[in-house]
C-alpha cells in the first residue's frame, strides 16, 4: 500500500484504509484470543453493532473485491440464512453478550436486497430469537436498484430498516454496463421514487468517481442527477483496483495500462461533487460522505466503530471487532456452512490490539471525518496525539493537508480528498510496508 500523496496513476493494489493493524497481520494462531474476549464480563456501557454479510448478487461488478456469489440457488441461500441464524445463536450464548443491546445493525454484501421478501422475514425472525434490534438507533440495508419492488421496500421498512443505501454508482448506462453493474439508470429513478413513497427515515445513494469510461462531462452530469434526487446523504468513493477485481486481473494478465482515471483527476471530480452538494445545503460528514442539513442525518455504524465500539460480523468472510480483538470468518461458503452445522464459530484469523494499536486505529479512522478532537484522545488514552506523532503531523501541516486549531486537528479540503494515501504514515514502523490485506 502506497503512502505517497503525490501518487498519480491508479495502479493495481489497495489504498483504502478500513482498519488497523493491517489485515495481513491477523493470524489463525491468535483465534484463542477471540474466545477469551467472548468469555469476559459484558461491557454494557460500550456500543454494540451487528454486521450481516449477504454475499449474493445478480452479477459480479468488474470492480468488486468483496466475497460474493452469483451462482447460488434458493435452497443454497436458505442454507446460508440458517447458518447466519446459527452463528448469531452461538454469539448470544457467550458471557460477553449477556445484557448487551444493539445500537446498530448493517446488512451489507454482496447484495442484501437480492434475497426475497420471504427469505428476509425468515432471516429476521430467526435472528430475533437471539438478538433484538427494536431499540437500535440505526439499521442500514444496502440495495441494488434492479432487485427492488415496492413490496420488498415495504418489507424492509417493516423489519426496521432506518437507512436505505442504494448502490447507484453512476447515472450513465454505458458506464454502468462497462463496469459490470446489473442495473441501468431507469431502474434508479423508479426505485428511488418508490423508496420515497415508503418513507424511510434516511435514504443514501452511493456513487463512484472514476469508473472505467468516466469523462469530465459524464461525471458532472452524474453529480447533477444525484442532486436532483435530493437524497438525505450521498457516499462517493474514488475508484481503486484491489488485486481480486476483474479489472485488476485483466490488467495483470494483459500487462495493460490501468483504464481508471488517475488520482489527481478523481480528486478533482470528488472536489466538484463536494462543491455542488455544499452549494445545495449539504454538509461534509467524512472524506466520502455528504449529508443534508434539512433533517438529522447520523452515521452511527461508522461513528461507533471509529470510536472503538464493538461489532460482530456474521457471514462468510465477515470482519469483527470485539473486546479489543479483531477477527474474520472463513472465506469459503461450504466451510462456513459446515462449521456452523457443527455448532462451531466459523473463524479464520484474529489479532488482539495493543494499547498503542487501539490509539492508532481510532486516530486514523477518525481522521476520515476531517477533524480530530485532541481532548478525546487525551481523556481516553492519556496521550497528546500531536506530540506522539509530531513528525508526521508537522509534515502534513507543511504539505497543507491539515491544520491545528487549539484542541482540534482539521484536514484541509486537499487533505480530505487524499486522506487514505497518507494514513499509513501513522502506522507503527514495522507495519508501514506490510501487505494491507
Question: Could you list some keywords that capture this structure?
Answer:
437 residues, alpha/beta, nine-stranded mixed β-sheet, three-stranded antiparallel β-sheet, 16 helices, 18% strand, globular
Topology of helices and strands:
Blueprint: H1 32-38, E1 48-54, H2 74-92, E2 102-109, H3 117-127, E3 138-143, H4 150-158, E4 163-169, H5 173-178, H6 185-198, E5 202-209, H7 216-229, E6 233-238, H8 246-254, H9 263-279, E7 282-284, E8 289-292, H10 300-305, E9 310-314, E10 319-322, E11 325-329, H11 333-341, E12 347-352, H12 355-367, E13 371-373, H13 374-381, H14 385-388, H15 390-398, E14 402-405, E15 408-411, H16 413-417
Parallel strand pairs: 1-2, 1-9, 2-3, 3-4, 4-5, 5-6
Antiparallel strand pairs: 6-8, 7-8, 10-11, 11-12, 13-15, 14-15
What does this entry look like structurally?
Helix content is 37%, strand content 18%. With 437 residues, it is of the alpha/beta class. Strands 7-8-6-5-4-3-2-1-9 form a 9-stranded mixed β-sheet. Strands 10-11-12 form a 3-stranded antiparallel β-sheet, covered by helices on one side. A 3-stranded antiparallel β-sheet has the order 13-15-14. A hairpin with a 4-residue loop joins strand 7 (282-284) and strand 8. The longest helix is centred in the first third of the chain and has 19 residues, at 74-92. The mean pLDDT is 95.
